[in-house]
Amino acid sequence: MIHLIIAPIVLPAVVAAFLVLVLRHDLASQRIVSAAATLALLAITVWLYVSASDSAPTPYLLGDWRAPFGIVLVLDRLAATMLLLTAVLAVAVLIYAMAGWDRAGRHFHPLFQFQLMGLNGAFLTGDVFNLFVFFEIMLIASYGLMLHGGGAQRLRAGFHYVAINLIGSTLFLFAVGLIYAVTGTLNMADLAIKVAQIAPGDEAILRVGALLLLLVFALKAALVPLQWWLPSAYAAAPGPVAALFMMMTKVGAYSIVRVYILVFGVDAGAVADLASPWVIPAALATLALGAVGVLASPTLLGLVCFSIIWSMGSLLLAFGLFDQSGLSAGLYYLLHSTLSGAALFLLADLVSARRGSAADRLTPTPLLPHANLFAGLFFVAAIAITGMPPLSGFLGKLLILDATWRNPLAVASWVMLLATSLLVIIGFARAGSTLFWKVADRPAESVAPASSIALPVAVIAGLLGATVLLSVFAGPITRELATTAQQTLDIKAYVRAVNPAATALSRSEPR
After folding, report:
1. Which of 149, 175, 314, 504 has its CA 20 to 30 A from that of 385?
2. Structural domain contains residue 338
3. CA angle 299, 302, 307 (to 5 degrees)
4. Which helix (H) or strand (E) holds 59?
5. DSSP state, 445?
6. SS3 of 74, please?
7. Overall domain count for the chain
8. DSSP secondary structure string for all residues of 137-165
9. Residue 426 located in a structural domain
């Protein structure tokens, strides 16, 4: 059963190739195969999560080449959590897309599966170079998904998105080359040993490589000042694609946690705690910019995009502590923000399609069909994303505030998080009142038939229902995530599992 560790990568890869080669002209068959594969992926990730919960990190050595000489995948609680969240979101997005949106082009389902392959590979890999490889698979699929359906605005934003990610990929390669040049390895478990033993003359090169890597991850996570690409790219992307892209920014945050705890953590010698001075200040700036963007946005999609930037600031504020309380709080908030953000993107897509020429602009229109239903969903989604009680966003913010209490930047963190929360609440209240309370005095435009909204509404309601479950079961969930954080910080256990032959590990016990 250990071979199931590679299944989240192999399954979508094989299915994507099959869809392209055999079923590219048969949308109905593509839907059946893609849905079956995604549901199977969900079942596999549930099994992997249960397995990871009861054991130490489990390596999977491709070709049975022992680390650090071969390609290695590593399943631990953190990777399993991210895999399960990706599969849950994938099922929701696929159901929404199959309500009719996937007819916009022939290749949505293969690209969707390749995107899942890249995401899952990034979470499972135990090697920095293969992290780059899975980043590229993920990004190449995202280029196609973003342009799916065409349109001048989407094409223009797509070119910008491709350009910035090509720059990020180039910097990633430079960083990988510099790190390999001075350590002779890119296996994370091996790096955890060798980085602390680096020769004094090589410290500067290693530091440059590590900071370049941090820059790339910050770009993926949309941290200030590298956040500017997200609003235009995500606002131009189709609704289901933007919802799936919620995991793209989380890959950046995950990579910061994984690499800068395991490799450049507290006992990494001359480059110890390399990311700590940068992440929290950048997160505070991200909070401020995201909140101002929410308040000033003239469009619904722009408001949602800036709320995602704001939520990434909240998430990295917790992760930037690099301790157990910060990691567990951040993981809870990560679950919440992914589900609520995806629900908002899908709802924005649904509402914009029924507002005629006004689309997603925050201007009054004639009363929408099913306005009360949309208003209710928007109200719940706004409560969730802004962090108002009683939903999981409120509990997530409380956990983050508690985790930052002992940090030197505690006062700034509390003031910024609470003040920006107020701005975000005002921004969502303004948007909701404009969309659903103010009615323009002009004839209503034609809209899609009522029957077409049943499945999309069910998906949105399901995602919002998941945030309710996060609140109801907050106790056991936070205990699970605390254990996950504890294991993530246990560097010795990770290295022993991946590279049992290592004898030079000289690290203190995890904090």
Report:
1. 149
2. yes
3. 125
4. strand 58-61
5. P
6. strand
7. 1
8. HHHHHHHHHHHTT--HHHHHHHHHHHHHH
9. yes
Which token pair is 95?
């159901």
Alpha helices in 25-64 (DSSP H): 27-53
What the block records as the tokens of 487 is 């294991």
Give the integer Cα–Cα distance in Å for 12 and 75.
18
Tokens at residue 25, please? 């002209």
- H-state helical runs in 297-441: 300-319, 324-352, 371-386, 392-403, 410-436
Residue 360 lies in a domain: yes
Residues paired with 61 in a beta bridge? 72
Per-residue tokens: 437: 């309370």
Q: What is the DSSP string of 223-244?
A: -TTS-THHHHHHHHS-HHHHHH
d(CA 360, CA 358): 6
In angstroms, the CA 331 to CA 191 distance is 25
Given a cut of 50, the residues of the chain with pLDDT beneath it are 448, 450-451, 503-511
* The pLDDT value given to residue 441: 63
Task: Determine the 3-state secondary structure of 443 from DSSP.
Answer: coil
Helix (H, G, I), strand (E, B) or coil at 19: helix
Domain membership of residue 131 (yes or no) is: no
The burial of 216, by beta-carbon neighbours within 10 Å (0-12 exposed, 13-18 middle, 19 or more buried), is given as buried
What does the pLDDT read at residue 507?
42
327-330, long-range: CB within 8 Å, 24+ apart, which pairs? 327/257, 327/481, 327/484, 327/485, 327/488, 327/489, 328/399, 328/403, 328/478, 328/481, 328/482, 328/484, 328/485, 329/396, 329/399, 329/400, 329/402, 329/403, 330/253, 330/257, 330/400, 330/403
Among candidate residues 498, 345, 456, 467, the one with its CA nearest the CA of residue 102: 456
For residues 109 and 31, the answer to whether their CB atoms sit within 8 Å is: yes
Residue with tokens 């022993």: 496
Range of the domain at 333: 276-441+448-472
Helix and strand tally (H, E) in the chain?
20, 2
- Strand partners for 75: 58
Paired sense of beta strands 72-75 and 58-61, if any: antiparallel
In this structure, is the dihedral angle defined by the CA atoms of residues 375, 445, 108 and 297, taken in order, positive or negative?
Answer: negative
Q: What are the Cα distances from residue 381, in Å, to 17, 234, 345, 384, 466? A: 36, 18, 10, 5, 11
- Asked if 501 contacts 188 with a C-beta cutoff of 8 angstroms, the reply is no
pTM score, whole prediction: 0.94
What span, in angstroms and rounded, lies between the C-alpha atoms of 139 and 174? 18
Q: Which two tokens stand for residue 168?
A: 């990020």
Kindly state the tokens that stand for 166.
């090509």
Residue 384 CA to residue 264 CA, distance in Å, equals 34
